[in-house]
Queue: 3 jobs
Job 1
Amino acid sequence: MSADTDVEVLRREGRIVVVGASLAGLRAAETLREHGFTGSLTMIGDEPYEPYDRPPLSKQALLGRARPEDTALPRRRDIDAEWRLGVAAEGLDRDTKQVRLTNGDTVPYDRLLITTGTRARPWFHPEEAALDGVFVLRTRDDSARLLRKLTGGVSRVLVIGAGFTGSEVASACRELGLEVTVAERGPAPLVGALGGVIGAVADRLQRKHGVDLRCGVSVTALEGDDVGRLRRAHLSDGAVIDVEVAVVSLGAMRNTEWLAGSGVAAGPRGIACDAGCRVFDVNGIVTDDIYAAGDVARSPHPLFDYQFLALEHWGNAVEQAEIAAHNMICAGPDRRPHLWLPMFWSTQFGVNIKSVGVPTLGDQLVVAQGALAEERFVAVYGYRGRVIAAAAFDGAKWLGFYEQQIASGAPFPPEYRAVDRRTETLHPIDPDFPDPHLPTHGATVTLTGHSPSERRVAFVPSHA
């Protein structure tokens, strides 16, 4: 039987299983049906809900502008799938092509797509994490519980970690009229994602809006009362803060543990796959029947030295899922690479922050438009003499231009004239990123090396 015949049989009669009822999982399923797949389709998800939109959970939902239960993703079409919700995958047998579920069931497949995404990193001390008033924010249920608490008469909130999610939570708390303290181990908010130069702007922005921002300190302990309610937080500088709510915002953990022992190249940094979303085994050999997409996947990108990138981006999840679905039911010559340019956005303290490219790869920075002091600017990052990324505060309308510059490998520093260009800010400076080997809340783009089975980087849990 020819490869083309095999693909046609798969398209008509094959069994495709998607583990991860997520944005990526849903868009992949829709694409499969749109591209003519008529076989059986099974969607497996550990939550009891069909796929929903996560960005509003730390933005509109906390402000009461959208209910967490109303964040279901819109459907492009009916996917005619069997839904296995509220039950997680706990193992994979590649020899028999079966996914093992926590309820003891097994689900056979001809093609498998893994879109298990990430989960919030929990507080490091389980007993403290169980206190009434300690929260993480990742799921629909997390958002609903936190919203009830924030609107229930609390006086002060502690946010642990000043990455994008932590900063958005702090912004929402201030809009709700709540006193909020933000504890950040790094020197400034957003420093892991955008560097210290831009982080200093975020620092001023938070303080201007009344945030009690404490940088360079860790939370060493959370203290409860006799009935298990959070009452105090202890900081590494000796300070003790009276708080009723603590939101732990220390980044995400990729959901790969269920693949242990399967022979798939999966670990804390994600699941390694090629540019066509095909998963590698632990020996670096690509498979033809297992694919990955979304936050859990890491794949090489030609614009960024072919580094394996793990991208925690809404747009990446959609684009990569569609590429994976296309390639799953196509013969080799018809497969397409996933070459999406990373983008990210955040709204906090009245400012729209957006980035394109991989800022963390940059070793130089110029402010190409606007001024840092005005909190309205476009900063351009350079790497080895070419434009590698751009980040804007209230300047998102210009990022389409910089996206083209990144894609074309335009020289750095930029030589073109631009709107609101200030000559005094065009001298390249160090963007001031923290040491990447020190655990922190993490960037939204993770550079994970060149080898698909690389094991050199391991996260060691530490104090926040």
Job 2
Amino acid sequence: MLNTFFQAIQHNDIEFVTQNIGKFKDMQDNQGNTGLMVAAYMGRTDIVEILKSSQIQKQNKNGFTALMSAASTGNDQIVKILLDEVNLRASNGTTALMCAAQIGSVKCCQQLQKEIGLKNLNGVTALHLAMAQGHHCLINILIDELEIQDIEQRTCLMIAAINNQFKCIDELIKHQCLITKQDIHKKTALRYVFDSIDIIKDIIDEGVRKEKLEAIKSIIKCLLPLEYELMADDMVSTLMLFCYNRMPVPKKLVETQSKQKQEEGITALMLAAQSGNISAVQQLKEFEINMQDKRGRTATMFAASQGQLDCFKLTYNDEFGLRDINGAGVLHYAAQGGNVQIMNLLTKFKGQTDCYGNSALMFAINAKQLNTVDYLAATEADIVNNDKLTPLMCCAKNDFLGGCQYFEGQGGQVDVNGYTAVQWAAMCDSTECFLPLLELENLKNNRHLMFQAVEKNSYKVLKLIIDCARRDFSPLVDYNFTALQRGLCSKLTQITSKKYNQLQDGLDPLDAAVLYNASECVEVLAPFYRFKTEKPFTPLMFAVQNESLSIQAIKTLVGYFGGIGLRKNVNGFKVGTTALMIAKKNGARKEVIDVLEDYERDCVDADGKKASDM
């Protein structure tokens, strides 16, 4: 019946509301909403007048009032009617003024000024909310909240900066009391303006992007003289921000902030080199050349890793001999950057390895830089690292199929642990490389690929193997598997755990997935192995004894193996014993037992006993 009353309000049926007000005046829906709240939200002024006397000052389950409903829609007429609810707070501290400020309603905010200064549970004021939405027209109305900071000590100016509300910033920076304030992270408004640049760079519309960047430059120009010396907890200086954002660096910043380092030891010169800020590199070179961060990286390495040729040329002659803490040189970083012009300047370093024996070629493979691999393969293909990893194995680990073509002659080689390239592909879930490497290296030394994949929870590779091995695979979604690939994958699915690590003999990959807590693998393998019923036990029986397997994996197993009992007496359990019986006897998780109950509560073992008898 209450729904009928609410519908009448929505349709502005004044007659029905008037006739039934006595019946519904004390009623609220399951969220605590009253007819007055509905009328206020829908803008039914006459009905608000009718219901006001009986439902004023009631709050719903979240503490919201009819006044807040009206304020959130900007209905100043209804706000005026409901002013008796002023200063009531929602459960999160929200006020009607905050609701009005959030939508930029000037008239509503003017009527709700008694709530100025109130904060929600996060210390946020109406002015904070208005600035987040860009309602600069409310600044003068809410001026008394100007100096209030939220629980993270952020000012309204910072909030405007975080949300790229440039018109608000233009107005707020006129107020000296907001300048040089820092939040709990020691960030200033200037820092938040800089932080917003990355967001603006992602704007697709070039015209809008340029307009916003110009606005930022103007704001930075205003704030810079006032806040440039203040630094946040991460030790990022204003000079570094200019360098990183490829902006012309004021000479004063170079003089006062050069040689400073942020938390990781990174300098302004490094950031300038990384971003391609050529003029900044020229300015900072005499102050910061040869400095290294905590990882031992230099400005030259930063330039090389990002392919910044011009910046690289400016610093290379001074820093070319330096290495990072792992022994990697500038060629290693250039290989990551993929700029062949830079590498042409570093030919004397070809063949150089880091402390772990990794060559620049391996760095290129890790970064999937095909042009760099092509450049270095002829001279560094035969270099293996300290773990005897070959470039082909590195390609397998990184699922870099394009790189594999250069190193096919390395197929079959093993590292210090006896792993081949295809085994690395299986363990790293490298679906692009797996089948080509399986063809290349065959099964001679790779019989337990599925078990290796299970152990690392490489469920995508397992799905690939299953799809390739299935005889009923739909041609509509065929991945153009070759006959050799199908044959090899089919054989893989038939291989058991014999002599694999500590697993008992005779287990299939699904059993192993259960034992290794590989929940995603269980979900992939269960449909394929549901017909493998020659064992006396089911994977579900293993699963109910595993405390770490996900409930979703348990449900998957129940769907395929629920209701199946032991085929012979095993470990004191009778023929016919089900997973539910085992779960109850071993004290399995309640949620596991609950899932099993629906399938197995009526099953009996050889003695006619049910799970409920145990």
Job 3
Amino acid sequence: AAYKMNKLHLHLTDDEGWRLEIPGLPELTEVGSNRCFDLEEKSCLLPQLGSGSTSDNFGSGYFSKADYVEILKYAKARNIEVIPEIDMPAHARAAVIS
């Protein structure tokens, strides 16, 4: 608190990935949160930024609804403001492909 480090900005979406589970839209995380080598991008997004050709890499993954709620509770208990960012309409490649 002395250094005013009480804000957490979460960049949850971009062209390279969708990182938040939306229960009514499972395809966003089924496809948009994974990177692998699939030229048609039916099961994942093409690898970018050195994430590798298989889906078991550091470029894949997302926060589940439960994960996100836990983050919010943890932050609130410590007086940290969580600022979620969902880029739309620009930087929406992951959502569009999904």
